[in-house]
Write a structure and sequence with these properties.
Strand content: 25-35%
Number of strands: 20
Order of helices and strands: EHEEHHEEEEHEEEEEEEEEHHHEEEHHHE
Distance between the termini: 40 Å
Largest sheet: 8 strands, mixed
Radius of gyration: 21 Å
Helix content: 25-40%
Number of helices: 10
Shape: globular
Structural class: alpha+beta
Length: 367
């Protein structure tokens, strides 16, 4: 396919930015639109599994994978504990020469590494999609700031609350998984996590938690990521949902966790904590419509139970860019992407829900 195509990517998260990078390297004319004024680097820690690290090799950018590995900590051991802190099991991470290691890494480090490899002139911040239309030959986007864009193809990478996705699958709905979730990054002054450690506190009494080592900060201080999941009903009213996201972890819930783990969470500065409700979506019947395609959470948002979310989005980017490049007609390329990718992401989503149910998470239906 001609690399003179004009392609819009909406959403500058990991999937959107990586998609834009690969397409740039292949010579396509790419514009990366983002609702925020600056690239989206918020978030805490990520377990980027080996398949995700391997996918970075397809970026077309030399040394991108090496830089990513240098920015993170190699996952070496998974420790499973009960809420009181008693060890139930310890599993070694698979490390061999045939594939890259899984990484414990800050989301901001991932985004920064991809951003620095990108031709940043393609980025347009402060653009919120309000309307999408397409003809046989073009896609047209209208943004809330009055800007209009027209081109050959649109890629929706705008996350779980995707505006682009509703133009492909209008019936797409969020499914609440039953948890309010707090995540944070904190200086690990007492060595709770060592290099390569990932701790899982098994779900019980309506809570679940995890902790993992992120490596030293810019000041050389050891840093640990934590996540705390609290089962509770979600308010029906959106304003109430947003208000509750500003609240701290309920004290009685935090007390159910072992004192050393609870103390680490309590020592975290408020500005280093991110709070969300946990959602996924049902598998979509298609990822493509006409000249529009979906990648990342817009296409297949799932729980964190398998740590496949970011990896799946990176894989989408590679499959989509290759499909576009290897077909002379846009619709044929997108059809190839859809046929190849849909069964894989459906498998990921199914497995994610199965594991969530087995570990006791309560799903409370669509929102």
């Amino acid at each position: 396919m001609s690399n003179h195509l004009s392609i819009a990517v909406v959403g500058a998260g990991s999937a959107g930015m990586f998609t834009a990078l690969i397409l740039q390297k292949k010579g396509f004319r790419v514009t990366l639109f983002e609702r925020a004024e600056q690239p989206r680097t918020e978030g805490c820690g990520i377990l980027l599994v080996s398949d995700g690290v391997k996918t970075l090799d397809h970026s077309g950018e030399p040394d991108l994978t090496t830089k990513m590995v240098q920015a993170g900590s190699i996952a070496r051991q998974f420790h499973f504990r009960n809420l009181k802190g008693k060890t139930l099991n310890i599993t070694d991470s698979e490390l061999n020469d045939d594939k890259p290691p899984s990484l414990l890494i800050r989301r901001s480090a991932i985004m920064k590494t991809i951003w620095e490899a990108l031709d940043q002139r393609c980025f347009k911040g402060g653009h919120t999609v309000i309307e999408v239309q397409q003809t046989i030959d073009q896609v047209h986007i209208e943004f809330s700031n009055g800007i209009h864009w027209s081109g050959d193809m649109l890629i929706g990478a705008d996350g779980i609350f995707s505006q682009v996705a509703r133009h492909i699958v209008p019936e797409r709905k969020l499914n609440y998984l039953g948890d309010r979730v707090w995540r944070g990054v904190v200086e690990d002054k007492h060595g709770f996590c060592k290099d390569g450690d990932f701790f899982v506190y098994a779900r019980a009494q309506g809570i679940y938690a995890n902790f993992f080592y992120l490596g030293p900060s810019d000041q050389g201080k050891p840093m640990t990521h934590w996540g705390f999941f609290h089962e509770e009903p979600i308010p029906k009213n959106r304003s109430e949902q947003q208000a509750k996201l500003k609240e701290p972890i309920p004290e009685e819930a935090l007390k159910r966790l072992s004192p050393d783990a609870a103390s680490l969470i309590s020592s975290t500065n408020h500005d280093q904590i991110v709070t969300n409700w946990s959602f996924d979506i049902d598998p979509l019947p298609t990822l493509v419509k006409g000249r529009i395609a979906l990648v990342g959470d817009a296409a297949h948002a799932m729980s964190s139970s398998q740590a496949r979310g970011m990896t799946a989005g990176l894989e989408d980017a590679v499959e989509l860019s290759n499909s576009i490049q290897n077909h002379t007609e846009i619709q044929n390329g997108l059809a190839h992407y859809n046929a190849n990718r849909l069964p894989t992401v459906h498998k990921y989503q199914k497995r994610s829900r199965e594991v969530s149910r087995k570990t006791g998470r309560k799903q409370t239906g669509a929102n």
